[in-house]
């Protein structure tokens, strides 16, 4: 490439110095200094050896920039200037401290132990299972075919351990996949809105990580702390066990396996192993099905009835999705069983080193099936279909009988609730879920349906309402956006306080299942206070109920008053 003809270099010396150099005998460009030479030869000195009389354009740039920028930077007490300055400083602060731009970081866990996390995806036991013959209109591919099971497992580890591996992102990569799913759920899935949703998700939570140590070793037996006898009611001993109870958790509609990390991690920090399933039934905003570690993954987005070649009736769609979830929950149970047996785990996600050391450390006799919203409906169903009391004798080696169920806001639009469970149940409604509605649930109020389901259970069970909470209170969302969620959902209780109450009740219930004893001071130690929402069973009960607890809980059904 030839330079332009007027291209020249800036002089480093003045004209007098240039003449001296040119006449020096050892100069690389020496020229004779005799007058005769100059008389007969016109010497044209290069411009790059001369000092420009005018200021170089390079040197003129900073003043020009300063002249233009200074009016913008000059302090002024206008609202635009103050606002832009605050925004700039906030962005700079978030960048320096690695804080998300428009959200809060997830808090650490408060239990006795540290928390580890692993992502595991394995083929469905027995191979791919087709739940329905329904197919996608666009491709003709099967819409309800279970190929793999993806779980995030949270578990206790040493509080001092720090993993060399980076933490998992709260919004799994790529963010654009989850954004496309939310755009589809909002019915604005197009090439204009998808980038907007992606930028918004990235700004809100793209940099948020889950505060658990990736691939940490499972807590060693000698680090397990034995509970004191004084912490339990009617308990004479505190057996020391080197195994951990297990729970399989099912998420709600428009949620994923990472939406409940605080609730599940808090239980893990109290000595439980929790496997959070990511459902590919069309309810997750976005998921990647990976058959191999090198596989880029098959995208799964939310399912609409119009996506199917032959649209299904809503009850049939819900039934099919719940059957899909059954297969995934069963796959998660099989995975935990394989880990406990020390079997090789064909994980298609990032390589792990900790799982082989888990052999014999999982208490398969203490399996809890839990879920929220749509997942709560699925968990209730799975307590009979997947992990019922006769499942271990059914001839299917993959099944295990569940010992209990934790049901959080069982769905109002996910089909009928299973009334055939026999295990102990803890059912917790958020305040918004118990509030009366003009819309009936299969012919009667939803609250009455849930209350009677729990009251008719043959095992000790509870039905509670967490006062001051809303449907998302058990998720991570209020922790990330506390003001926004409180304003939009009407939740009145402090978000961390609300989650702490959920965790305490769930932990007390999980401690009750193997022992039959309830911690003193627990809400589970209380008899029923409200058979109807916001209506005390009696004036005497209102007066004797602990005042501080009355601000947090309503007890609708308890083992002592189930038949009352």
Automatic annotation (TrEMBL):
<dbReference type="InterPro" id="IPR029058">
    <property type="entry name" value="AB_hydrolase_fold"/>
</dbReference>
<keyword id="KW-0443">Lipid metabolism</keyword>
<dbReference type="GO" id="GO:0003847">
    <property type="term" value="F:1-alkyl-2-acetylglycerophosphocholine esterase activity"/>
</dbReference>
<dbReference type="Pfam" id="PF03403">
    <property type="entry name" value="PAF-AH_p_II"/>
</dbReference>
<comment type="similarity">
    <text>Belongs to the serine esterase family.</text>
</comment>
<dbReference type="InterPro" id="IPR016715">
    <property type="entry name" value="PAF_acetylhydro_eukaryote"/>
</dbReference>
<dbReference type="GO" id="GO:0016042">
    <property type="term" value="P:lipid catabolic process"/>
</dbReference>
<protein>
    <recommendedName>
        <fullName>Putative phospholipase</fullName>
        <ecNumber>3.1.1.47</ecNumber>
    </recommendedName>
</protein>
<feature type="active site" description="Charge relay system">
    <location>
        <position position="409"/>
    </location>
</feature>
<keyword id="KW-0442">Lipid degradation</keyword>
<feature type="active site" description="Charge relay system">
    <location>
        <position position="471"/>
    </location>
</feature>
<keyword id="KW-0378">Hydrolase</keyword>
<feature type="active site" description="Nucleophile">
    <location>
        <position position="373"/>
    </location>
</feature>
């Amino acid at each position: 490439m030839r330079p332009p003809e007027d291209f020249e270099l800036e002089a480093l010396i003045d004209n007098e110095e240039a003449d001296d150099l040119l006449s020096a005998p050892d100069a690389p460009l020496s020229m004779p200094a005799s007058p005769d030479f100059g008389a007969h030869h016109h010497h044209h000195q290069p411009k790059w050896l001369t000092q420009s009389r005018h200021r170089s354009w390079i040197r003129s740039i900073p003043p020009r920039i300063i002249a233009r920028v200074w009016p913008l930077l000059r302090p002024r007490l206008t609202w635009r200037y103050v606002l832009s300055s605050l925004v700039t400083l906030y962005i700079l602060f978030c960048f320096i401290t690695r804080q998300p731009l428009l959200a809060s970081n997830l808090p650490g866990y408060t239990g006795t132990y540290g928390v580890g996390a692993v992502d595991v995806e394995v083929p469905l036991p027995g191979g791919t299972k087709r739940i329905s013959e329904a197919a996608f209109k666009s491709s003709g591919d099967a819409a309800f075919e279970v190929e793999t099971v993806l779980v995030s497992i949270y578990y206790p580890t040493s509080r001092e351990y720090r993993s060399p591996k980076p933490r998992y992102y709260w919004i799994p990569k790529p963010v654009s996949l989850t954004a496309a799913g939310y755009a589809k759920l909002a019915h604005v899935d197009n090439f204009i809105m998808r980038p907007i949703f992606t930028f918004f998700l990235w700004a809100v939570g793209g940099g948020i990580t889950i505060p658990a140590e990736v691939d940490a070793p499972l807590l060693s037996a000698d680090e397990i702390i034995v509970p004191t006898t004084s912490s339990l009611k009617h308990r004479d001993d505190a057996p020391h066990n080197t195994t951990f109870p297990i729970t399989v958790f099912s998420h709600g509609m428009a949620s994923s396996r990472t939406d409940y990390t605080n609730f599940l991690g808090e239980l893990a920090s109290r000595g439980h192993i929790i496997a959070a399933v990511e459902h590919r039934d069309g309810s997750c905003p976005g998921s990647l099905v990976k058959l191999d570690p090198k596989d880029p993954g098959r995208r799964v987005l939310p399912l609409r009835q119009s996506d199917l070649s032959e649209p299904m009736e809503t009850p049939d769609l819900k039934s099919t999705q719940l059957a899909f979830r059954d297969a995934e929950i069963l796959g998660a149970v099989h995975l935990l069983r394989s880990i406990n047996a020390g079997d090789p785990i064909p994980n298609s996600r990032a390589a792990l080193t900790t799982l082989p050391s888990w052999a014999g450390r999982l208490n398969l006799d203490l399996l809890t099936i839990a879920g929220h919203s749509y997942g709560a409906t699925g968990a209730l169903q799975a307590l009979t279909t997947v992990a019922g009391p006769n499942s271990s004798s059914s001839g299917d080696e993959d099944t295990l009988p569940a010992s209990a169920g934790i049901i959080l806001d069982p769905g109002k639009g996910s089909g009928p609730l299973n009334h055939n469970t026999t295990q102990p149940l803890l059912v917790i409604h958020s305040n918004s879920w118990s509030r009366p509605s003009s819309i009936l649930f299969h012919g009667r109020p939803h609250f009455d349906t849930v209350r009677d389901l729990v009251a008719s259970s043959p095992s000790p069970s509870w039905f509670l309402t967490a006062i001051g909470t809303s449907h998302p209170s058990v998720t991570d969302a209020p922790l990330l956006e506390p003001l926004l969620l409180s304003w939009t959902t009407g939740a009145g209780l402090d978000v961390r306080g609300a989650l702490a109450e959920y965790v305490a009740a769930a932990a007390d219930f999980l401690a009750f299942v193997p022992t039959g004893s309830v911690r003193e001071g627990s809400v589970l130690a209380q008899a029923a206070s409200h058979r109807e929402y916001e209506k005390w069973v009696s004036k005497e009960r209102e007066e004797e109920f602990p005042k501080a607890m009355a601000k947090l809980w309503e007890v609708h059904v308890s083992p002592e008053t189930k038949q009352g």
